Amino acid sequence: MSKRRIRKMKEAILLVKDLSVSFHMYDGGLEQYDLKVISNLTLDVRPGEIVAIAGSSGSGKSLFAHAVMGLLPENAVMTGKVFYKGKVLSQKDKEALRGTEMALVPQSVSYLDPLMTIGAQVRGTKPNRQIIKAQKEIFKRLHLKEETEKLYPFQLSGGMARRVLVATAVLSGAQLIIADEPTPGLDLEMALEALQVFRELADAGKAVVLITHDIDLAFHIADRISVFYAGTTVETAKAADFLKGKETLRHPYSKALWEALPQNGFKPIPGFQPYAKYLPKGCLFSPRCPLKTKECENEIPMTEVRGGYVRCIHAD
């Protein structure tokens, strides 16, 4: 039986259903209001699979990761459900699983403890011979010199710090790894090597969520790609669909992203992603969409189309 068939049969390690996140905010007159920045996000990732999340800045990618990991600030309100291996997670559950069953490769290198050596942070509080050996192996693979483990975070370059964060996630033994922009600051060779590490983790049965701006890299490493726009999912499809061309895609925004790639003409998308305080009714992409009709002002659910899922009434 093929690996792909096995993946489909297994229960999702992570299932996020109708996730919404709002923040309690105050305007200039100190009137409180709720600013919804994520609306009805849905995503699943199974053992042996990499799901890449693509979208422009401000589309909710990093906030999604923080919601799953239980890292939202105190003024945030989350609705919807996050399942891990079939169980709905509470905030306490997320805190208990974080760093053991679930690992985050954060976008910011400031997550490294400035008062602890790199080796101690990567190996954890109770290192054994096996962990020490594994740490040395992953450092070597990520081109981190042996003396790196004796350094402190302030002594690292940005690229080195990012590779240390990747190494920390690898050694955690987590079943779910969420990598939030793990490749900025790395040259192409090193970025590909880091992504290959995630591919091998998935092939070993882990579930990986890869958040990235670099759609080109995601095409070649991921099994599926989920496209975010203005805080919601607009399409989730096989990575192969994105490689084949825009005609195999379903949502107008996904097609526009494909056309915006350098090798496809670098065609810019007219208009701007809406600010969370001034979202349009219905389809959030409708103000920029050439297919817009009156019906687009209604609530648009995710529907299955040609083996993928899309939030568009005009998809076929």
TrEMBL record:
The record's annotation in PROSITE patterns points to: ABC_TRANSPORTER_1 (PS00211), ABC_TRANSPORTER_2 (PS50893)
Enzyme class name: translocase
Keyword NAD in record = no
In this chain the ABC transporter domain maps to 16-255
Q: Which GO terms describe its biological process?
A: peptide transport
What's a Gene Ontology MF term here?
A: ATP hydrolysis activity
Q: Which domain of life is it from?
A: Bacteria
Q: Name one Pfam family in it.
A: oligo_HPY
**Which keywords accompany this UniProt record?**
ATP-binding, Cell membrane, Ion transport, Membrane, Nickel, Nickel transport, Nucleotide-binding, Translocase, Transport
Q: Mind telling me which residue stretches traverse the membrane in this protein?
A: none
| Entry membrane topology | Peripheral membrane protein
Keyword Translocase among UniProt keywords = yes
Q: Which reaction does it catalyse?
A: Ni(2+)(out) + ATP + H2O = Ni(2+)(in) + ADP + phosphate + H(+)
Subcellular location per UniProt equals:
Cell membrane
Instruction: Give me the Gene Ontology terms describing cellular component.
Output: plasma membrane
Q: What EC number(s) would the UniProt record show? A: 7.2.2.11
> So what family is this one in?
Belongs to the ABC transporter superfamily.
Subunit text:
The complex is composed of two ATP-binding proteins (NikD and NikE), two transmembrane proteins (NikB and NikC) and a solute-binding protein (NikA).
Name the UniProt record assigns to this protein:
Nickel import system ATP-binding protein NikD
